[in-house]
Amino acid sequence: MRKFLVILLATLFVLSFAKTLKVALLLNGTLGDKSFFDSAGRGIQMAIKELGIQAKIIEAGYQQERWRPYLEDLSDQDYDIIIVGTWQMQEILEEIAPMYPEKKYFIFDTSVDYSKPGLDNVYSILYKQNEGSFLVGALAALITTSGMPKTNPEPIIGFLGGMDIPVINDFLVGYIEGAKYVNPNIKVLISYVGSFNDPAKGKELSLAMYRQGADIIFNVAGNTGVGLLEAAKEADRWAIGVDSDQALIYEDIDIEIAKRIVTSMMKNVDLSIFRGLKLHLEGKLKYGQAEALGIAEGGVGVADNKYYRELVPEQIRAKIKEIEQKILRGEIKVSTAYGMSTDELNKLRASVRP
């Protein structure tokens, strides 16, 4: 009995000093975009609830001069893991991470350059957004009515991008290829806003695309994309959301907007962050390398919610599932903007120009 009590007390003593994992999520933007950064925030909340971590979310805003000081300050504090995201944080992290080799860092939606020294404490999360975008491109081509009557065989759909950069164009490449897989004659109006935080401009460009004949537009613009969703409501047209399940987010905010979102191309930042933290706690996370998460890994997909099921006929939903399986089996190879030359990208964009 005495031996048992000694072991029990020793165990309790060790557990009482077990260090709770402390995590900081630094956003180079703000919460409230109802897509990308909000998804990252949800991943942290999931980890707090299910993994028992301590965490803080820091909103650094959109002023770039503030991002490096924030990251340096967090690195000087007692956080075990610091998480950042987007291509805009890549170079900053490449400079900061080697200065704090005892810290661990995640970066999502891009990868650091591992040929540079001192980055073996960084885990990079990439997403195969081209795969998920292929699915919603096919969906847009299947449900658009802009090609009716049959005397107009070239239906028009739209794409709103935050900026003309590789990650956004990776969405675009998949979207175009998915649409052309269904209808080789389809046309795609393409607008880049030049900002991820300009909803007014996003709305203006979206309304212009609706006026030019698009009846459905894919939102790949962060907070700017809020303007597209408002435009869909105003023009009584359709939108495809991005990153988060935007219809479910909006149903308690503006039900009329929710009803115009056919589905969302899910870029599961939340699940990827939660997964990374769980693997870290299990001692299984491989730092010093990047990991790309696609359909097979649950990194991307189509939001299957009540709006999708109500708005999209069953046979079309079945077709999207069929296409998804073909991607998983390797029967459909989706191109990527990464490594694509400017000439190749311009040729693809020109092939769907009205």
UniProtKB/TrEMBL annotation:
The keyword Membrane applies. It is found in: Cell membrane. Residues 22-327 form the ABC transporter substrate-binding protein PnrA-like domain. The keyword Hydrolase does not apply. Keywords: Cell membrane, Lipoprotein, Membrane, Signal. Transmembrane segments: none annotated. It is a lipid-anchor. Pfam families: Bmp (PF02608). InterPro entries: BMP_lipoprotein, Peripla_BP_I, PnrA-like. It comes from the Bacteria. Gene3D superfamilies: 3.40.50.2300. GO terms for cellular component: plasma membrane. Belongs to the BMP lipoprotein family. This is Adenine nucleotide translocator 1. It comes from Pseudothermotoga hypogea DSM 11164 = NBRC 106472. The lineage of its organism: Bacteria, Thermotogati, Thermotogota, Thermotogae, Thermotogales.
